[in-house]
Amino acid sequence: MPLTLQGPADPIPSSSPAFATPNQLKPNQRREPPGLSEPSILPIFLPPTTLRPLAFRTFTKKHDLNLTSSALQVLAAFIGKQCGSAWREDGLAEKVLDHTAKQWKKNGGGVLVPGDGDDLATILRSIQFATEAGKLRMQTCPSKQEAFLHTDPHSNTNEDHSWTDQQAGWVNGQPDLDAPTLSTHHVPGTDNLKEARQYLTVVSAFEQPRLSYNAKQKHFDHGFGSPSLLATTSHKTHMFRQRYHLVHQRLLRNESFQTSAVTSAQPGTRLPGASRLSTLHAYKITPIANLLGRGGSVHMLLGLLSRSPSGLLTINDLTGSINIDIQGARPSPEDGIWFTPGMIMVVDGRYEDEESKVGSGLDGNAGVGGTIGGVFVVFGMTGPPCERREASLGLSSSQHDISGISGAGFGWVDFLGMGSEKAVGTSMRNLEARLLRKGNPGASGSGRDRIILLGEVNLDDTHTLQAIRKVLATYARESVDRTPSVMVLMGNFVRHAVMTSGGGGGSIECKEYFDALASVLSDYPTMLQSTTFIFVPGDRDPWASAFSAGASTVIPRSGIPDIFTSRIRKVFTTVNAEANKMGKKGDGEAIWTTNPSRIAIFGPTHEIVLFRDDMSSRLRRNALRFATHPQSWQPADGGDDEQQRKPSQHHDARHGPWQKQSDETRKMDSAEAASSNARQETHPVTVDSEVSPDIRTTRRLVKTILDQGHLSPFPPSQRPVLWDFASSLHLYPLPASLVLMDAEAPAFAVGLDGCHVMNPGPIKAPGRKCVAQWIEYDIKTRRGKLKEAQY
Q: Which residues cross the membrane (predicted)?
């Protein structure tokens, strides 16, 4: 049982179980305090010298504390008595030491931890009374997440709350380790919950935890210091290092890059024209600096594509950069992914040394840490294969055992500030199954488990307002218990940039556009009383458009200012007040979030990313062009013809990273053909030359973004990024769904590697008269469906 003692105000960063504190549901019912059970363990004598390595690793290396000999003796005696012979196998000693160090620092203790005195004894005493059968059971103090707190607003605040606090995991300000954990017990106080909307939280980009991957210790740390919009230049370097580290550690966990002790006799399939290196079963990434003095050898590189000051195409990693030659390169998959500067790519080729380096005056220093002399002739290029969410979190991918831990992962990391997967994941999944399962009379109707996605809502266009009215009228005709729980409206909310004298008008005109939307919303009070409206801004919306003139603004960007949205907020307040007077429950709200932002449903178990960007046109403008190659590869004897039809596809555990690309592309299909099982990949679609251009564009866009694991894989000159908030742009681990609103791409809803990607497109269907289009997302199946209506 994991030990999670860190409180919400604890500023100490860690990747241990306490790093991801579960947000305990505060129950409404009261119960009698549980009695202390007699320990059923066999105490042992634990020598301090045996405990010293573990204590040093926990106190000194992790928490920067120094233990005295007397303190080590006290800890050894305590662990030997309370944890018994299972102190090492079950990891009990590490949990006790980690909690002791955290509490010591939280209590204001010094760097040196003495054994004499009452400070250390008090901490150990709090753990002693929370030991049951040799197991430490505890929970953290409830956080301020209102989605996980369900208290009675009419309760008497003067009553004794000692046992209520104990049910939440704390008694008299101390953690109660006797309380049952969320991950294994039924959550009290949730029997009267009827819908998933009560567990829905919108996490803005500026509220999301700022995490950085520690490559040395292989875990995530919290960002130190206060973030700034005008950060120092070192933070820019750190931003690119984080991108490389995340992709690199993800790539090394791929089976194709893990060396096996047993070498198979069957040769692997390789990319046509690729080097001998790609025929091996285990691949190895070579640092660029290691190419020096190894002319004529073949290597596989992982690095960031970029343009040098002299205009040459280069690839860069943390050790240096080198010019690359792609004249004979073959992309993988062909016409299945975009390759642009700013992306992290895997390239396979041969290093050719040169005596003199061309353009050394422009390209910077030569040698290690700078530009390596010579050129790297590329044979094949592909993107790093994406990783399923279950693999990133260390969860089992089996549908029948979704809560099992299958191996290494970051299940204890709290990526959204809603609790980690290992801490609250199982309990939230059980609650989700109870609320959303079919045939349950207490579960919500299928109508409430829907999210409506509207894109490119140009309020300065009268046809857009008519389309919005049509969508609202479509769902307002349904009964109250079938009204969609969430409606997402994504910008741009004006066709032209505001306050740029380019046709978009000034602040007064912009205020009138949102007032017109308020008038439309007020005509449908039933929707406003029970639906959460989420507004995501675009590049042309205020105030960012005032200086960008509608071009790419810096991301993440803040929401629409309150000065423009006051009328809409007033409409929601008025409608809810009227509903409460009539005895109905009016809890509708309008949330003006950032771009990008995330929706967390049932804590960390269901994550939806919202992002507004016309990235497909930017990818087409900056994409590299490769020479065409004749198809000369033939399937091997006895192989799967369908699997080997595309030889230039990458990454399969049996044949290496070049081949699975076709498998992943074929798995990407439309939502209409998707399986009803939300956790099962959709049926494969055969890739042939008769596929429409819109489907090809959709597949290229989805695969490019998910392989990069980043919402903005572009150079800062094309898409500026706030350095201190760049972690909010990472798609790691992969979310359950990604809403990528691109007005210049066709509307779609496809899935790849467990992530369902949707583009609702403009609400006013382009090229079609008086047709409104949107996406209806089902929370239960985690699939979206394209909808249309004539207005």
A: none
